[in-house]
Amino acid sequence: MTAGQTSLFAPEQAPEPLLCWLWLAQVLGPGSLHAKEVLDAFGDGQEAWRARGTAEFRQLAGDAAARRAVQLDPASFAPVVRHCEKKNIRILPADHRDYPRQLRRTPDLPVVLYCTGDPVWLNEPARVGMVGSRVPTPYGVQVAEDIGGTLARNGAIIVSGLADGLDSAGHRAAVKNHSPTIGVLGVPIDRTYPVANRDLRRRMEQNGCVISEYPPLHPGVGANGFLQRNRLIAGLCAALVVVEAREKSGTMSTVAHAQRYGTPVYAVPGSIYSENSAGTNGLLREGHAKAACRAEDLMEDLGLRLCAAKPAAPRQPQPMGDTERLVLDHIGAKPTGVEELRIATGLPTAELLSTLMKLQLTGRVSALPGQRYILR
User: Fold this and answer.
1) Do 229 and 186 meet the contact criterion of CB atoms below 8 Å apart?
2) CA–CA separation, 47 vs 317, rounded Å?
3) Of the ranges 55-59, 187-191, 310-314, 344-348, which one carries the lowest mean pLDDT score?
4) End-to-end CA distance of the chain
5) CA-CA to 19 of 20 to 30 Å: which in 147, 265, 315, 326?
6) What does the pLDDT look like over 186-197, one tens digit per residue?
């Protein structure tokens, strides 16, 4: 608790950290615009719990969240932890080493993520969102297979919503090409929607992962869950590709989130006579997206090169040490200089430069003139 705070509660021992994280996620709720502010102020779930009765917590989290904070008991989330352990579901609070660094920088970050499969892929470079209509035309399906497949063969990680239509087509293109892919659910982590995608999900979990901000045993979240899910796709990716979309659709909400986060948007041109392409053509007409007529249109921006041969074996994640993670935590979409990184990380200059070189070689950061660095 910071100086000057006055709590309504007597000093007491905080519950274990993971329970406090689950408590905080429930207190703030999905998509809270206060999430980053709260974490910036208090650091973690335990400190937020200790400050739950303070004026500062109420000011940062909002009145409704402050009321929930004093009503909810972190111990009530113990069954969720036990269920996750039993079902091999990973719990990733915002301070977990596998929590996506890109999401940590968003104002409405999910305080906790739940994951099946291997969460290491959440921080691998060249993650590409591929979204579009749930009722696509044959043209849209073919485009998703062709562009998604080429991107996957050449090192991109396809991210989508594991829904009907073009979401599934993007995931299948990755699986077919032995490439990792990430599914982002709009339902609790122990459910698959639609049910028909259960087999696809199992295949994705063998070389990739599936995430949700909704815990197992959670009641239905309705249509709002899918709209909240869209911000995670947009925030997780280095680029977003819209294959086919109507002017008013859930897909366009993903585009709005991408624009809010500064994620580059690409759109596939379609027939001027097709309602399914009215949204994508509008993005291109109004200058809100770059044209994606082939995978190569994205690859240079992603730092990928076209390979002639198909990968012979599934891609393996690139190991990353604690020092590399530390440096990555202080690099974002805006250029950061070496001296600023040295002060922020506390690393000697020689070790910092060596680490930055490793991050460049693994495709995680790009170097700019003047020894400045940005996330790739």
Assistant:
1) yes
2) 33
3) 310-314
4) 36
5) 326
6) 999 999 999 999
Q: Where are the beta strands (DSSP E) in the chain?
A: 90-93, 112-117, 127-131, 157-160, 181-184, 208-212, 239-242, 265-267, 290-291, 336-337, 365-368, 372-375
Do the Cβ atoms of 304 and 155 come closer than 8 Å? Answer: yes
Q: Which tokens go with 48?
A: 């937020």
Q: Could you give phi then psi for residue 192, rounded to 5 degrees?
A: -125, 125
To the nearest 5 percent, what fractions of the chain are helix, strand and coil? 45, 10, 40
In sequence order, the 6+-apart residues with CB closer than 8 A to the CB of 15 are 23, 46, 49, 74, 75
Contact 209, 109 (CB under 8 A): no
Contact in structure between 154 and 125 (CB atoms under 8 Å)? no
Amino acid 336 reads T
User: What sections of 154-294 are H helices per DSSP?
Assistant: 166-176, 198-206, 223-236, 250-261, 278-285
Which of 221, 229, 106, 213 lies closest to 167 in space, CA to CA? 229
Q: Is the pLDDT confidence value at 246 over 90?
A: yes
Full-model pTM: 0.85
Write the pLDDT tens digit of every residue in 266-285.
999 999 999 999 999 999 99
Q: CB count, 10 Å around CB of 340?
A: 14
Residue 241 and residue 158 in contact, taking contact as beta carbons nearer than 8 Å: no
Among 219, 266, 217, 218, CA closest to 239: 266
* SS3 of residue 74 by DSSP: helix
Q: Is the peptide bond before 194 cis (omega within 30 degrees of 0)?
A: yes
Q: Given this model, what pLDDT does residue 315 score?
A: 67
Contact 190, 219 (CB under 8 A): no
pLDDT of residue 103: 95
